[in-house]
Amino acid sequence: SAAKREDRAVRVWSSDLARNAADELVLQSQLRRGIPKGELVLHYQPQYAAHSGALTGVEALVRWEHPERGLLGPYAFLPLAERSPVIVELTTWVLSRAVAQAAWWRQVAEVPVSVNLSPRLLAHEGLVDLVRAVLAMHGLPARLLTLEVTETAVMAQPERAREVLGELRALGVRISLDDFGTGYTSLAMLADLPLDELKVDRRFVSAILTADRDAAIVRSIAALARRLDLELVAEGVEDEETRRLLAEWGYDVLQGFLLGRPSPVEGLGPALGRARVPALAEPLPADVQV
Ligand code: C2E
Ligand code: MG
Ligand code: MG
Ligand code: MG
Fold first, then answer.
1. What is the pLDDT of residues 204-237, one digit of tens each?
2. Which residue of 103, 104, 165, 272 could cross-link 138, Cys pair, CB 3.0 to 4.6 Å?
3. Does 149 sit in the ligand 1 pocket, CB within 6 Å?
4. What mean pLDDT do residues 176-203 have?
5. d(Cα 140, Cα 205) in Å, to the nearest integer?
6. Helix, coil or strand: residue 134
7. Left, alpha or beta for 276 (phi > 0: left; psi -120 to 50: alpha)?
8. Taking every annotated instance into account, which residue ranges of this chain make up the domain EAL (predicted)?
9. C-alpha 245: how far from chain center
10. Model confidence over 88-129: pLDDT tens digits?
11. Distance between CA 225 and CA 223 in Å, rounded?
12. Using CA positions, which residue lies closest to atom 27 of ligand 1?
């Protein structure tokens, strides 16, 4: 039945697939071989200006079309990828694909794209060169790429993060602090980081109607972002009342199931249509190298 299928899909999507060390090794090697075979897929979730409703960009979210297990969400395989050097290959693919897509869209309209960087990439020596090379290869202006790093990853290595994010920003790339509110960054630390954007974590956003405490946090983050001159994004907007409150509190950009679910490029028509450029929903031609 549909309910059963849904249930199974949710289970496959939501937790680490590797139940033991042997499992983990098999999956890591399947992933390593799967990437060049084209098994990774990007879905894109639209982001909109809170007041005008204009499309401001899309976030690229990776999935793995596993030959036996079906379409896997990031929570199923990113943790195990993150524990192996294959995370560098995965990130290289995601970054190249997203940048190629944005360059393709740019023939019609500029659609900024956000890419998530795993914690391990912050420590990767070749990161800045990689980003520079990918942008150059596809001729995408750096300002159309935002790199999202989680607050937790930054706090795990604050010195390194400050240095590498500074170098990326010097390329012209935008930097977003993702899942903000979960990592206890001090005010002084935050003011010191080279950032363009704060992205408030879904767990706070989804609770603003029911928990005064979370509403207070989400409001004070807005005040903070204004002070630090950071663009403020809320993820996980699922209902109209939440959307209205966030706009009233000064959130600049909104993302969530209410406004648009992550979807393959082919399904982006309605989202991009709001930007009056429906032709953007065309997939990359097969011969575009990534
Ligand atoms: P994230 O960067 O915080 O991305 C937002 C996640 O929230 C996505 O889940 C998205 O589908 C989901 N989401 C968006 N709006 C709503 C909503 O209104 N309600 C609910 N319940 N969920 C919403 P997804 O695609 O499963 O990705 C999960 C996480 O995996 C991402 O969280 C990100 O941390 C990571 N991730 C995804 N793609 C990549 C990637 O290419 N590289 C790396 N390193 N991490 C990635
Ligand atoms: Mg993100
Ligand atoms: Mg996030
Ligand atoms: Mg999140």
1. 999 999 999 999 999 999 999 999 999 999 999 9
2. 103
3. no
4. 91
5. 32
6. helix
7. left
8. 24-276
9. 23
10. 999 999 999 999 999 999 988 899 999 999 999 999 999 999
11. 6
12. 74
Residues at Cβ < 5 Å from ligand 4 ion: 179, 202
Enter the ipTM.
0.97
Q: What is the pLDDT of residue 7?
A: 46
* Whole-prediction pTM: 0.92
- Could you tell me which of 103, 91, 66, 78 has the C-alpha nearest to residue 147? 91
Residues counted in the chain: 290
Instruction: Report which ligand 1 atom has the smallest distance to the Cα of 73.
Output: 26
Residue that the structure tokens 């005040």 belong to: 223
pLDDT score recorded for residue 280: 61
- Is the confidence at residue 279, as pLDDT, over 60? no
For the Cβ of 116 lying below 6 angstroms from any atom of ligand 1, the answer is: yes
How many whole angstroms from its chain centre is CA 72?
16
pLDDT range class, residue 163, cuts 50, 70, 90: very high
Q: Do 111 and 57 contact (CB within 8 A), yes or no?
A: yes
Give the whole-angstrom CA distance, residue 199 versus residue 149. 10
Q: Does ligand 1 have an atom closer than 6 angstroms to the CB of 257?
A: yes
Burial of residue 268 (CB within 10 Å: 0-12, 13-18, 19+) is buried
Task: Please say whether the beta carbons of 175 and 142 come within 8 A.
Answer: no
